[in-house]
From TrEMBL:
Gene Ontology molecular function, alphabetical: fatty acyl-CoA hydrolase activity
The BAAT/Acyl-CoA thioester hydrolase C-terminal domain, residue ranges: 49-255
Gene3D superfamilies given in the database record: alpha/beta hydrolase
Pfam families attached to this UniProt entry: BAAT_C
Protein's name according to its UniProt entry: BAAT/Acyl-CoA thioester hydrolase C-terminal domain-containing protein
Organism (species): Micrurus spixii
GO biological process terms held by the UniProt record: acyl-CoA metabolic process; fatty acid metabolic process
SUPFAM superfamilies in the record: alpha/beta-Hydrolases
Length: 256
């Protein structure tokens, strides 16, 4: 049997399979999991139920060619936030890679059983429109450190598995370096040593596998406008090459 990994991306929506394909070439049974804008799923991001992701986890574990000792999750952006949530609440998930994700629920609420984590809000008045028409939304998301937003925080200290946080220090999509710092500080305060942080100067938001084209600007499907992802070509390419090797090491260590 092969170690199983669920792979998710952000607010691009739809089914994105290139990273899962690469994971498969490295010996993982990888499931690309869309969660909106695909077939009968909602066309736009709405409140999420973690039971959907729990069903996907159990579906993968039931496969006769997948190891039964637990699965890994990898997610970018909103997908990273969902990876943290799965790791926190689903005992079947034993390893989570959060790339440029937030340590709190954002935009839409997350429900699981009788529990609800409300989403942090985006304040459109804090968006900057650059001279070239690109939108810089770096300051738009409400501050998760504000006590008024404490209910949105993902209680990752409850997780028993292992975390890998990957962030670019020039991420302009949102403050992923800050969110990773919040998450790792929380784990440290709870005397947890189940995490690693990879932080890359000059790298932006979309840290993809090695040799992927550097994406400095991307069309946001929610807003329908071009969004500044941040990053500088050489530094971002280095982050992609280095982090991909570390991600594979992490998944091999904790799943195989």
């Amino acid at each position: 049997p092969f170690p199983g990994v669920i792979d998710m991306f952000g607010d691009e929506g739809g089914l994105i399979e290139f990273r899962s394909s690469l994971l498969a070439t490295h010996g993982f049974a990888a499931l690309s999991l869309p969660y909106f804008n695909f077939e009968d799923l909602p066309k736009v991001m709405d409140d999420f139920r973690l039971e959907y992701f729990e069903e996907a986890t159990r579906f993968l574990l039931r496969h006769p060619k997948v190891k039964k000792s637990g699965i890994g999750v990898i997610g970018t952006g909103k997908g990273g936030e969902l990876a943290l949530s799965m790791m926190t609440f689903l005992p079947e998930v034993v390893a989570a890679v959060c790339i440029s994700g937030c340590s709190s629920i954002t935009a839409t609420a997350l429900h699981y059983g009788k529990e609800t984590l409300p989403g942090l809000c985006f304040n459109m008045s804090r968006i900057k429109i650059l001279d070239n028409g690109i939108f810089d939304i770096y300051e738009a998301l409400d501050d998760p450190r504000n006590p008024a937003n404490s209910q949105s925080r993902i209680p990752i200290e409850k997780a028993e598995g292992h975390f890998l946080f990957v962030v670019g220090e020039d991420d302009h999509n949102w403050k992923s370096s800050l969110y990773a710092e919040i998450a790792t500080t929380c784990l440290h305060q709870h005397k947890k040593a189940n995490f690693n942080l990879l932080s890359y100067p000059g790298a932006g938001h979309r840290i993809n596998p090695s040799f992927s084209p550097v994406c400095l600007v991307a069309l946001d499907r929610v807003l329908g406008v071009p969004i500044l992802s941040g990053g500088e070509n050489k530094a971002h390419a280095h982050a992609q090459e280095h982090s991909w090797g570390k991600i594979l090491e992490f998944l091999n260590l904790h799943l195989k």
